[in-house]
Write a structure and sequence with these properties.
Blueprint lengths: L1 H9 L13 H15 L8 H15 L4 H10 L1 H12 L10 H22 L3 E6 L5 H16 L7 E7 L2 H9 L1 E3 L8 H7 E3 L7 E4 L1 H6 E5 L14 E4 L8 H14 L5 E4 L12 E5 L2 E4 L2
Parallel strand pairs: 1-2, 1-7, 2-6, 7-8
Antiparallel strand pairs: 3-5, 4-5, 8-10, 9-10
Length: 294
């Protein structure tokens, strides 16, 4: 009983070798740390989830208890921040998820933007903020590459910035290699055009076309920290990211997005996200599509 009580209060490893328990003090520290460094709000109901997911990090780091993990975060927070954020958040992504956003780009926004850029000589920039494993920016790149060809605008300086906090997700995004079953959202025509199917030891995998790699720059970024880029961006995709953030963090983030978008610039959110009661810099113009007010 004494060993069990110690495990519950101090987050120590269990004597029988089972998974360590997350103590009260360790959970409070982790909750405060995650809110400060990641903007993610963890309620008490998330305690079991945090314990289960971070137990894998303890095994990977060969740490016996949560107290040691908290000490690691205190001593060197940046080294573990990406892995911690990956562990406690659920990155659900897919090629052409919420297809209406891509349709709006292809049919209305990109033709207009490219015509303007050709006349002015300005560059075209799209930011995929919280790109996870890369399906979103590469889907954007397919639409952009097709628009550049269709509208005779291959000379326009057009790029997509893809950022995320998770080192594992960024590695996948940089590699651009996906199991065939992950390509379900891509039409047959686009799959033939933009995905290179592997063979031999790469059987069952597909790699993105080199042209898409040319259009996408994958970089690590914590949305709560300083941003090296200054914009402006024509569009920012931040979909299914702010669902984890508390209200003050959302408000700060959307103000910063507004600062990187010109009047008329577009912000795309996830299907369960909204700016209602959060920010007045944007007006809703479509399903989870916002335009910066002039």
């Amino acid at each position: 009983m004494k060993a069990l009580a110690g495990a519950m209060d101090g987050g120590v490893a269990m004597a029988d070798g089972s998974a360590p328990l997350l103590g009260d003090a360790e959970f409070r520290f982790l909750r405060d740390f995650v809110r400060e460094h990641c903007g993610i709000s963890l309620g008490d109901h998330k305690r079991q989830l945090v314990q289960g997911r971070l137990a894998r990090r303890l095994r990977a780091l060969r740490l016996r208890h949560f107290g040691a993990y908290c000490d690691l975060l205190r001593q060197d927070p940046q080294s573990e921040l990406g892995d911690l954020a990956s562990a406690i958040s659920t990155n659900v992504t897919a090629f052409f998820r919420e297809a209406h956003h891509y349709d709006l780009l292809a049919e209305e926004l990109l033709p207009r933007w490219l015509q303007q850029k050709r006349r002015s000589g300005d560059r075209l920039r799209i930011w995929s903020a919280g790109c996870a494993t890369g399906e979103e920016p590469y889907a954007l790149a397919m639409v952009l590459a097709e628009a550049l060809e269709r509208h005779d605008a291959t000379g326009v300086d057009a790029k997509i910035l893809a950022t995320d906090l998770s080192p594992q997700a960024l590695e996948t995004a940089r590699n651009g290699v996906y199991p065939l079953e992950r390509l379900a959202g891509i039409s047959d025509g686009r799959r033939r055009r933009w995905m290179l199917r592997g063979s031999g030891e790469y059987e069952g995998l597909a790699c993105v076309h080199p042209r898409l790699r040319e259009l996408v720059a994958v970089q690590p970024l914590n949305l709560l920290h300083e941003w090296p880029m200054r914009g402006p961006f024509d569009a920012i995709f931040c979909r299914n990211v702010v669902i984890y953030f508390d209200q003050p963090t959302k408000q700060r983030l959307f103000r910063r997005y507004a600062g990187l978008l010109p009047a008329g610039g577009h912000l795309f959110l996830g299907h369960s996200e909204s700016l209602h009661g959060v920010n007045d810099d944007f007006e809703l113009i479509g399903r989870t599509v916002y335009r910066k007010r002039g």
